[in-house]
Amino acid sequence: MKITNSKILVSVVIPVYNSERFISEAIESVLNQSLKEIELILVDDGSTDKSLMICEQFSQMNERVRLLEQKNSGVSNARNNGLKLANGEYIFFMDSDDTIDSEFLSTSYELAKKQDLDIVVIGEDCCKRLPNVYALPTMAQLLKHDFLLKHSDIRFPENIQPCEDGLFSHQLLALTTRVAGNPSGQYHYRHHENQNHKSINNAVGKVLVQIPRWFEILDDFYKKIIYIILILCI
Predict the structure, then answer these.
(1) Which of 73, 77, 100, 116 has the fewest CB atoms inside 10 Å of its own CB, making it the most exposed?
(2) Model's pTM, two decimal places?
(3) Which CATH number fits domain 5-194: 3.90.550.10, 3.30.1130.10, 3.30.465.10, 3.10.50.40?
């Protein structure tokens, strides 16, 4: 039976770029979730290997899988475009070379509904930061879709990597107190030679050039908050 929009509880968005060795396992870990009322949105970011072909096969075989193709424009753009297609009550952004435990979405969603949360912090390590958590990696956030729509000006900053997920999460965390942790959620982070952080370490100069832009984004964000507070106080 086809899942209607109203029955989609969680949308999982995976940006894909040259992940032919790992993408099948990542997709299967999502489709094998105990929570079945989900959709998987794959955003191929101009892959030059067999990633797109693999994604096409899954989208043809399983009606819960949707595929978006785009020219190579970076992980932030891919996530933002995937979010535009999402119908789920909650959103989870996952990397194409990782996997999640079969109860990952179920336990996170149940907590979110029980406490009416805007953000569920997932994983034991990240939950240890609560209640004073100021930024989160993408893999540690289940986000309420209505909350993201309410703050539609906050999206993953494009042409920035690393810290695109930290900048995104920091702004969202500053806008809500409806946050709680699910330490039982298990995200399996794959270690391999082509990981983003290893590529970043080999291009430190390019990263340093981005730092002023990080502060510019945060400066604009807090100026906007102060302006809103002043308006409300008048």
Answers:
(1) 116
(2) 0.91
(3) 3.90.550.10
CA distances from 60 to 51, 57, 66, 139 (A): 14, 5, 9, 26
Residue 203: what pLDDT?
64
Q: Is the peptide bond before 131 cis (omega within 30 degrees of 0)?
A: yes
Residue 121 token pair: 């912090």
- Cβ neighbours of residue 118 closer than 8 Å, sequence gap 6 or more: 143, 144, 147, 172, 176, 178, 179
Give the whole-angstrom CA distance, residue 31 versus residue 199: 29
What pLDDT sits at residue 1? Answer: 36
Q: Identify which of 112, 123, 122, 174 has the alpha carbon closest to the alpha carbon of residue 145.
A: 112
User: Amino acid letter at 129?
Assistant: R
**Residue that the structure tokens 């430190």 belong to:** 204
Least confident of 15-29, 112-126, 139-153, 193-207: 193-207
- Predicted confidence at residue 231, as pLDDT, reads 72
User: In the 8-state DSSP scheme, what is residue 121?
Assistant: E
124 membership: H or E segment, kind and range: helix 124-127
Residue 211 has pLDDT above 80, yes or no: yes
Cα-Cα end-to-end distance for the chain: 54
Q: Which residues of 102-124 are buried (b: 16+ CB within 10 A; e: fewer)?
A: ebbbbbbbebbeeeebbbbbbbe
State the DSSP code for 190: P
